[in-house]
Specification:
By secondary structure, the protein is of the alpha+beta class. Helices cover 19% and strands 15% of the residues. The longest helix has 15 residues.
Length: 394
Amino acid sequence: MAKKKSSKARPSKIESKSRKKSVKKKVTKKKVTPRRSASKKKGSMPSGDPQTEYLKLQADLVRRWSYADPLPEVTAKMASLRPALDLNWLATIRTCTTPPSPVDVASLLPEFRKLARTTVRLNPRPGTNEPEASKIGGLFLWPQDEEWPSCKEHDSAFVPALQIAKADFPEVEFPRGADLMQILWCPNDHEPGYCPDVRVVWRSRASVKKPVDKHPEPNTEAGRFEGYVPQPCRLYPERIVEYPDPFETLPKGWNERLESAPEVASALAANTAQTIGNWSDHGDADRLYQCALSTAEGTKLGGYPDWVQDPWYPKCQCGRTMEHLVSFSSWEFDGETWFRWLPIEERDVLEGEYEVRNRVQNAPKWMFGDAGNMYVFVCRICPDWPIVAGMQCS
C-alpha cells in the first residue's frame, strides 16, 4: 500500500467527514471538537422500578422514532435513568439501533440496486464477555499448548483485537471446520501498510480443551501505540444495507438526480433541524450521500470500505483482488455523520460530556493514525486464506 496521501487527508473523525476528500467541492475545515456539556434540561426521573421503566422507554423509542420526530424527551428520560442502573445489567439489555436511511437510494437511483451490499456494524460498547464470545479485546479462547503470537521487531506480545463466533455472524464465510475468527496484532506500526502487523486465526472452539486464563502483556517499553491496545467491549451487531463510497466509480449523473429529489430536500431539512452545538449538518445532496447514504461508519464486517483516501483494493499473490473482511474505525460516528450513524437510543450524548460521548463514539479507545480506518482484506481462493492490512488517515 502506498504511504498516506497528505493532500487527500481526512480530519480527525471527531470533527467531520467534511474534510475527507470532497465529492464535488472543497468544504471549509472544521477544527472544533464537540465537547459540550449538557445544557438542555434532562427529562424528569421516571417513577417506579428504573430497570422496568428503562426497558419500556427503550422499546418505545425504537418503535416510534423517526427523522421527523426523534423523540428527544424519551432519550432524555433514558439518560436520566442510566446512573441508577447496574452496568452489567445494562450491557445485557442494551440495543443499538442505527436509524434507517433517510432516503430510499435504490428507488431514487435504480441502477444502485445491484451495487447494494450488506455490512455488519459491530457497535462496540464497554464490557467484558466469556472467552469464547464475540467481542473486542479481553480474554480470547486460546489453547494452552499454542504459542501466543509476538513481534520480534518490537519485542512485544500481540494484543487481542477482535473475536467473532460463526454462530453470531452467519453471513461471514469461515474455513471448513472453523467456527471462531480471532484477529490479533502487534501494537506498533509496520510497513508497508503503516499499521499494526495483523494476524487472523481461524479455529474450532471444540478443539480448545485447555484454554489459557490470561494472555501475555505487550512490551510497554517497545514504543507501542496506546491507541492500538483496545479496551474490552461487547458487540451489538446490526445488518445494514450500504452503497459504494463516493470515491468509488459510480454511475453517471447520480448526484444531479439526488439534488433535484424532494425526499433529499426533506432529509436535509431534518438534518438541519436536529443539528445542535458544534455538530455539523450536511448542507447539500453530495454530503448527504457521502455521510448518510453510502458506506456505514464504524467498525464493521464485510460490505464496502469507508475510504478516507482513494480506494485501495490489494492484490493477492495469486493475482486476484482480495475481499474486504473487516474495517476497524477510530470513531463510530463523527461531527457530521452522527445524523445517520449514531444509534437512536444514544442521541443524548450529542449534548453530553466528552467521556460520556466517548463511551459510545470510541468504546475500544483505539486510534488508527489521525482518526483513520484500518482495513483487513482476505483471499478465500488461496488455501491458507492470506490477509493484507492497510490504514488510511489524515
